[in-house]
C-alpha cells in the first residue's frame, strides 16, 4: 500500500531536510534585505518567522483549550 | 442617452435560471455556459451613473447604477456563475442550478442597485434562491436549510426596518456612504453584517453550507458573504466598529476550523475568516484598505470556489466529507490534489498566487495608518490561515494516512472548472495589473518587493513548521464544536419540549379534575337521592315506630334525671 515514492521514509526525511534549509534561507535573507518596519518589533531579525511560529502555536493551544469545553460528538444534534 | 439601451445584467441570469429546468439536457448545458458570459457582456455595457429606473409604490427605484466597484463585483459574480455552472453540469438536481443562477443574478442585482429599496428587493431574492440551493441537496439538508432561511429572513427584517427608518427620516435616497449616527443605519449595518457571517450569528454559515450538495456549496461560498462585503464597502466604509468585528471573524474562523473534522466545514469557517480580513479593511477605510478589501473579495471568490470544487470533487467521487475518513487521495486524484493545493496556497496569500496581491494591501493599509495592534493581529491571522486552511485542508484530505480509497479524478467538466480557476489564481498572482485596474481607487501599491515577499515566506513557512511539529495536537476526532447555534438548535428545542411537557401535564391535570368533578355530581345525587340513596329510599313504619320509642324513652330518662 505505502509504495508511493512520496510516502517512503527516505523521501519524508529528505523533505524535512529541504524544508529546514528553506526555513533557514528565508530567515538569513533578512540579513541581506532592508525592511521598512512600521513599528519596532516588526524590524527584528526573522520577525515573520518567530512571530508566525509563536502565533500559530498560541492559536493551536487556544483552540485545544476551547475544544476541551465546546467539543461534542458529531452526532450531538442528531440525537 | 445610454439609458434606453442598457439591459439590467441581473435579468439574464434570473430569467435564465427560471427557464433552465424546462430545457432539454443539451440546450440546458448550452444555456448554463452562455448565460453567464452574456451577463458578463451586459455588465461591461453598464455606464457610470443611473441607467435604468422604475417606479414602485410611488418611489423612484434606480435599478441599475454603475461604477467601478459595481462592475468589479458583478464581473467576478458572472465569472463565478460560469465556472460554477461548468462544474455543476453533471448535477442531476436541475433545481439547484436553476436556483443558483437566480441567486447569482440577484447578487448582481444588489451590486448594481442604485437605491436602498432595490438593494432590499434583490437581497431577499438572494435569500430565497440560496435557501433553495441548500434544500436541493436532499432531505438531510432540510433542517439546515430551514435554519438558514430563518436567520436570513431575520437579517431581511433588520435591513427592511433600517431602510424604512432611513427613508422615513431622510426621504427616498440613493445608496451611498452613510455615517453611523442613527438607529436605522445601525439596523442596516446589522442586516448587512448578518449576511457577512459576522458575530454573534455567524453559525448559520458553517451550519448550512456544508449540508448543500457537492456543487451547491461552490455557489453558496461566492455570493451571500461577498454581496455583504460590497454593501459594507458602499454604505459604511471607514466605520470603526468594523475593524473589531472583522478581527473577531478572522480569529473565530481560524480557531473553529482548527477544531473541525468535516473538510467542507473547515472551508466554511475559513470563509468567515477571509471575510473578516475584508471587513477589517472596510473598517480601516483608507483608499488602500478599501481597494484591498474589494480586491480580496474578487480573489477570494475564485480561490474559495476552487477549494470547494476540489472538496466537492472528493465528495462526488467518494461520498465522504470527514477528514477521519479521508487521506492519501493524491495517488489517484492528482489533478484535484494540485488544484486544491493551488487554492490552498492562494487563500494563504503565498507569493505568486492571487491572495498575496490582494490581502497584503489590507495589512499594508493598517501599517500605513499606524494601527499597530491591527497590523500585528492581521499578521498573526495570516499565519493562521496557512495553518487552518492552507495546509490542513490538503494535508488531511489528500495526504496524511492512506485511507485505502482509490477514487479517480472527477468528470471532464469538473476538471475543466478547477483548471480554469487554478489558472486564474496563479494568473492574478503573477500579473496583478488587470485586477488592480478594476479597483475603485487608483492603486499605489507594489506587492512584489523583496521585503514583502520574504516577510510572507517566513510567516507562512514557519506556520507550516508549527503545523507539522504540533500534528499530534491537530489530530482529527469525530467531533463538532458548539457555537451560538447551540441556543436555537439545542437549548431552544429543549426548553420548548420541557414547556410542552409542563403545559401538557397541567392541562391534563385540569381536564381530569374537571372530569372527576363532572362525574362526581351525578354520582352523589345517585348515591343520596337514587333508588338506593339514603334520602330517597322508603322507610318501614316499624323502624320509624322503634326509633320514635327510643327517642321518647330517652326523653323520659332525661326528664327524670332533671
UniProtKB/TrEMBL annotation, chain A:
Membrane-spanning ranges = 12-33, 45-70
Q: What is this protein called?
A: Uncharacterized protein
Q: Which UniProt keywords apply?
A: Membrane, Transmembrane, Transmembrane helix
UniProtKB/TrEMBL annotation, chain B:
Does the UniProt entry include the keyword Nuclease?
Answer: no
Q: Which InterPro entries match?
A: ComplexI-like_HydComp (IPR052175), ND/Mrp_TM (IPR001750)
Q: Which top EC class is named for this enzyme in its record? A: oxidoreductase
Q: Which positions fall inside the NADH:quinone oxidoreductase/Mrp antiporter transmembrane domain?
A: 113-369
Question: Does Membrane show up as a keyword for this record?
Answer: yes
Q: Which GO terms describe its molecular function?
A: oxidoreductase activity
Q: Where would you say this protein principally sits, based on its record? A: membrane
Q: Which residues cross the membrane?
A: 6-23, 30-48, 68-87, 94-114, 120-138, 145-165, 185-205, 217-236, 242-259, 266-285, 297-317, 373-398, 419-441, 453-474, 544-561
Q: Which Pfam families match?
A: Proton_antipo_M
Q: Coiled-coil annotation: which residues?
A: none
Give the subcellular location: Cell membrane; Membrane
Q: According to its record, what are the GO cellular component terms?
A: plasma membrane
What's the Enzyme Commission number for this chain? Answer: 1.6.5.3
Q: Specify the superkingdom.
A: Bacteria
- Report membrane topology: Multi-pass membrane protein
Q: Which UniProt keywords apply?
A: Cell membrane, Membrane, Oxidoreductase, Transmembrane, Transmembrane helix
- Name the UniProt record assigns to this protein: Cation:proton antiporter
| Taxonomy of the source species | Bacteria, Pseudomonadati, Pseudomonadota, Alphaproteobacteria, Hyphomicrobiales
